[in-house]
Amino acid sequence: MIIVVESKKNQGSTFRFTAQFERFNEKDGATISGYERLQGEKRAQDASKLKGLRVLLVEDDEINQELAVELLTRNRIEVVTANNGQEALAILKDQEFDGVLMDCQMPIMDGYEATRKIREQEKFKDIPVIALTANAMAGDREKDLEAGMNDHIAKPIKPDEMYITMAKWISANDE
Ligand code: MN
């Protein structure tokens, strides 16, 4: 999947998506390998598992925030947004969430510090926190884990990857 974002000052932004969709009906089954078919089923399962979840999205970049909100709400995930770590901590104080998607680089309070402060609180020791990071290098991954994040999703976000990673860690409290 390719996502192109065009931003013009004072004119807003345009998102363009190029996506390839595979078909999984019986008729086409013969042309798709068993592995691909399983992968497709897993993606669909993972995406449907996430429906109805309530997630806190912490992201300072307006365009990335809009894009992530779109991908989450499209899958019927309820999203509340925060623009930095400090805002996230304030929101977590009086609202319940099934998980947190945390950008790493943010002004005021970055994602690492915010995650450390979340983990310091007993009631949040098990809340899933998934890093959103533009840099998928090994060193950053270690830094994510060290700060207490469970996993990470690389930016630009690939919808399938996001759903699969989220489904691995986040599930509804009431199920
Ligand atoms: Mn950022």
What are the main properties of this structure?
about 180 residues; alpha/beta; five-stranded parallel β-sheet; two-stranded antiparallel sheet; binds manganese (II) ion
What secondary-structure arrangement, pairings included, does this model have?
Elements: E1 2-8, E2 12-18, H1 26-29, H2 34-49, E3 54-58, H3 62-74, E4 78-82, H4 85-94, E5 99-103, H5 111-119, E6 129-133, H6 138-147, E7 151-154, H7 159-169
Helix pairs in contact: 2-7, 4-5
The structure holds manganese (II) ion (MN).
Manganese (II) ion binds at residues 60-61, 103, 105-106.
Helices and strands: which structural class? alpha/beta
Instruction: Please summarize the sheet with the most strands.
Output: 5 strands, parallel
- The number of helical runs is 7
**What is the helix content?**
40-55%
Run of helices and strands:
EEHHEHEHEHEHEH
How far apart, in Å, are the first and last alpha carbons? 32 Å
Chain-averaged pLDDT: 84
Count of extended strands:
7
Say which molecules are bound, naming each kind only once.
manganese (II) ion
The Cα radius of gyration reads 17 Å
Unreliable stretches covering 5 or more consecutive residues: none
Q: How much strand content do the residues show?
A: 15-25%
Q: In order across it, which strands form the biggest sheet?
A: 4-3-5-6-7
Shape: globular
